[in-house]
Each structure stands twice: as structure tokens, then as C-alpha cells.
Amino acid sequence: MIIREEQSGDLAAIHRVILEAFDGPAEADLVEKLRANGKLRLSLVAELDGQVVGHILFTVVAIEDADPCLRTLGLAPMAVLSEFQRQGIGSALMHSSLERCREMGHDAIVVVGHSEYYPKFGFLPASRYGLRCEYDVPEDVFMALELRSGALQGTRGLVRYQPEFSEM
Question: Which domain does 129 fall in, by range?
Fold first, then answer.
């Protein structure tokens, strides 16, 4: 398996992966809109035998009233084709992307996701850092991860995603 940055030839395959992983086209359309508007910060694919079987995306988020130097990303979405799930592809995408986000100099990541999946990678409820999501989601599914130890220390505020997320 190869984890790499998306390329222009991957767009149809990425769309297919996301469409299959979610109910309806909203997430796939969101990714296309974010890409068209130049909002992708990191977009990786998992390739197996020449086929794109997984995708993970990060965009910049803003934390109201936080230090403007704090570099925080939002993870959304992550998807793996159903026939390749539970084979470690999602974990490989997570580990590789988290390392790349650190290398890029980012301080923290937030995610709205499965409360039993993301803690495996060090995510904790964002409320522990005083962070709230702009969307009405249960507290246990809005999580944060410090890429740099202490990065979120003393940070409090409302996390705002790119405007395209509100258009979903």
C-alpha cells in the first residue's frame, strides 16, 4: 500500500471512495467544492495495486479568541472503500497524515467523528481543551489532538470550519 498526496488523476477515484463511504453525495460534493475553492491543506490517498482505496482530507479551521499563530486543522472527511475496511488502511492514512501535518508545522487537529475510533490516535474530547464546535454535535464526537505538546494549553473558543462545510 502507498500513502501519497492526491494528484489530478485521482479526483474521480476520490469522489467514488467518498460517495461509497457516506450516505449520499454531500461529503463528496464538499470535497470537490473545497478543492475548487483552494481550501485543501492536505489531501492524501491510499493506493493499493494501483487503485485508490482510501482518502483523508484536512482544511484550516479557526478558533475564535485563540492566538492567531495557533495553526489548527480540521480532519474531514476520511473514507475507505467498504471492501477494504478493517484492513488497516484507515489507520495507515491517519498515521501518515498526522506525521505530515506535524512536518508542515501545524499545532493541532480537530475532528467530528466516531468517539471510539479517533481516540486510538490520541484524540480527546475537544471540551477538555475548552474548544466547542460551531455545529450542534454531541460533545463526545468533537475531538482534538495536539500535534505539538501543550499547543492547546490555555486555548478556549469556538472552532469554525471553512464556510463550505456550512453549505453541506
Answer: 2-166
